[in-house]
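Practice problem: predict the structure.
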Amino acid sequence: MSSTSRKSPGRPRSSEQAAPVSDRILQIAMHEFIRSGYDAVSMDDIAKASGVTKASVYYYFPSKAVLLTESTIRLMNVVRAATLKILQKPLPLRERLLEVTYNHLQATTSFDFEGFMNKIETVLTPEQTENMRKAEHQLLEALADAFAEASDKGEIHIADSWLAARSYMALLMIGHSKQPDGTFTYPDKRLAADKIVSMLWNGIGNRPA
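Answer:
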């Protein structure tokens, strides 16, 4: 065999390279992490679920922590793109926020979102955590821009669009809250979305419109 026909250890087979392998691995990895938890999922599990060799997984992602980081960042970017698509609709801001909130709650209703995010922070390096924060920052920027635009149009009255964006994200987590018995505090996601947006919209010092 000539030297040019050899491949690097772990390099994906040509049949595996026909599709965006790394992106498929990221998508499958996030699904597995959410379904079974980070600790319970091995790189071998992800390889089998992705239909590639374990060497191929390691070729793209040298460790499970790196794979967790990249798959979560990919998820955040998907959420950001979906959020931007809704925020760009020619609708009143409140209607857009309701749609964003409902879609988010529906998409994450099958797993412990808060627990998952807390777990992530315990396994990442400072550099990986920073990369995660950058992805989160981009989502906050998209929301802050929407609040600032609505304020400029006189639709809302805020002094700090960034604070409004962070307040919204904090309220969004309430939709994942659970009772002591493990059931969701707000199982009806449309009702939860309405409560979250209403709290943001009216605050605690004004009567509901």
